[in-house]
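Kindly draft a sequence, keeping tokens residue-aligned:
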Amino acid sequence: MKKPYWLKKSYLKYKINIIFFSMFQFFIPKNKTGNKVLITELDGIGDIVVRQKLVDKIAEKYGRENVVLLVTYATELIELSGYKYELFEKDMHYNFFKLLRLFKKLCEYDFGILYSLEFIPEDKLDFLKKINFLKIYAFEGGWLDKWKDKKSIVLVKLSVEKVLDRIYKYAITVVEPDLIKEELKPRLNILTSEENYIAVGIGASDKKKITFPEKLSEFLETIVSDYPEMKFHILGYGKNDIEYFGKLKKAFSKQENLVCFVNKLSLAETAKQIANARMYIGFDSGLYNIAYALGKKQICMISTKRGQAFYHQDKNIHFVYRELNTKTIETVNELKYNNDISSISPKIFKKTFDFIIGGERRENDF
């Protein structure tokens, strides 16, 4: 029998932590309500990247000097944008002392407005209700629903449209009604070029978004068959990506063509690797969104054509997916990987790559 959510160890730990926090926060001087704006973005790297222009629009409205971001990831990219931020460490809501220390720091600002930008509102931000906000803006659902009768809150309906459509809806509802959607398309402040290598992202937030290493090797083999000198700069971070690269290298026929940057670069340095690549190849991940925000040509491998409807619509992004009439490959020994992506034909992948390269040639003819 499945244990109820309220009996799970993590939930109980969080609730006990909040009880202690609620007791001790009374000893911390509260903020004076002023003109400072707190923007929370506690979701992943990709979400922070694609909302970059939304943050810029909020900053234009209130003054960049009055904006503070509360984030867990992508701090280096935020620094490149020149914003002040405070760090909400991963699992901080389980640590009473860290949470209280952060709360004290936030109370030193004269916040008057809160913009919660998470697509899925986070309960871990519930401690913010102790701060004296005059106005709160957020997507509907989650922790803020409990506040709407006690605070001045504007909730934006969370649609199932493309990510940029969600951002646009949020922007015209609570930031500036006359905005044009194209103004919200992200662009990272990093110079780009086209050196003779391909950047390859091997990770994602979930194994269900990627294929197994041997299959990715098959895809890359189709490129070196025509471009034997082509180098692949492999990008990733963490223990899983290190193991993944080891298996990829073992399966690949021209190991000397693989240049491993896994766990060797900061996020900003990784972004620069993508910025200077001829193109990017990867899955639905933070790096896919960085490539999008850099305007790089890329191949993104996803499950099905139907799933493409929820991704970015951009001339530089070419989606490769399993065609509906093809046989599904069951990854028996690697059950966590995506069977649909694992069933993509290498011929389909190569056809897409050739189309992009052919497009480069056509552009150079003019």
User: Anything to note?
Assistant: The longest helix spans residues 346-365.
